[in-house]
Amino acid sequence: MLPMTSLLVNVKIGVFKGVSAEPLTSVHFCLFVSLLQMFEFYERVSGARMHAAYVRPGGVHQDMPLGLMDDIYEWCKNFSIRIDEVEEMLTNNRIWKNRTIGIGVIGAEEALNYGFSGVMLRGSGIKWDLRKSQPYDKYDEVEFDIPIGSNGDCYDRYLCRIEEMRQSLRIMHQCLNKMPEGEIKVDDAKVAPPKRSEMKVTTELHELCGEFGVYLVSDGSSRPYRCKIKAPGFAHLAGLDKMSQGHMLADVVAIIGK
């Protein structure tokens, strides 16, 4: 489900943010149908459409329902066609390029100084991805590429997101093919979890907007003593003033959307 979450974020950005830069209705509906289908997959596996709470400390909440993997496989085959359609409509579109090329430029050194991560960093030419540099879960057992830009503008970040959607599909295909058979959790709601010990742990995860950090402190009780969450967008908004200088107010929509 993690690669699908990455894909879901990219599609939501394409539907609600990127399209705001130019009202291309055909792109909106092309991605919106796929977005609703992913929400359905989330609901089937966790009961929630957006905030799934499926991946938890120590693993996942429950086994996937029967037939879900087959449906995801068919969806992946169809969504690759949707990506081609979006590229055909946007990549060489004169209006789209006018609204994104040279907009929100940030250099590699400046991106590092601001603490950027994710596509905001890779769009400036820095090849950094936690799934490669500090792999977790099964990312060290799957093959995928890290797309990077060279100009650090909205257009390069758009190209990176398009390629990241293709790489997410590539990861999903490998995960589906390597998924072991049978259940992974006992079907007994009366099983008590193991005793929680005192601990401090910090974890960084790959999230399509950047690196998502969690600092968790446990005192042994059923509730965390402290939980600090660092979202990637906080650092990105700090650089908004720098990236939007000299541009029109309407360009801020494209900068935030990318």
Automatic annotation (TrEMBL):
Matches recorded under Pfam families: Complex1_49kDa
Task: Give the SUPFAM superfamilies listed for this entry.
Answer: HydB/Nqo4-like
Q: What is the lineage of its organism?
A: Eukaryota, Metazoa, Chordata, Craniata, Vertebrata
What is any one of the record's Gene Ontology cellular component terms?
Answer: mitochondrion
Q: Which family does it belong to?
A: Belongs to the complex I 49 kDa subunit family.
- Keyword entries, A-Z: 4Fe-4S, Iron, Iron-sulfur, Metal-binding
In terms of Gene3D superfamilies, this protein maps to: Cytochrome-c3 Hydrogenase, chain B
Q: How is this protein named in the record?
A: NADH dehydrogenase [ubiquinone] iron-sulfur protein 2, mitochondrial
* UniProt KW Metal-binding keyword: yes
Cofactor(s) this protein requires: [4Fe-4S] cluster
Under the subunit heading, UniProt states: Core subunit of respiratory chain NADH dehydrogenase (Complex I) which is composed of 45 different subunits. Component of the iron-sulfur (IP) fragment of the enzyme. Interacts with NDUFAF3. Interacts with NDUFAF7. Interacts with CERS2.
Q: Which InterPro entries match?
A: NADH_Q_OxRdtase_suD (IPR001135), NDH1_su_D/H (IPR022885), NiFe-Hase_large (IPR029014)
Q: Name one GO biological process term.
A: mitochondrial electron transport, NADH to ubiquinone
Q: Which domain of life is it from?
A: Eukaryota
| Gene Ontology molecular function, alphabetical | 4 iron, 4 sulfur cluster binding; NAD binding; oxidoreductase activity, acting on NAD(P)H; quinone binding
Q: Which residues form the NADH-quinone oxidoreductase subunit D domain?
A: 34-204, 210-257
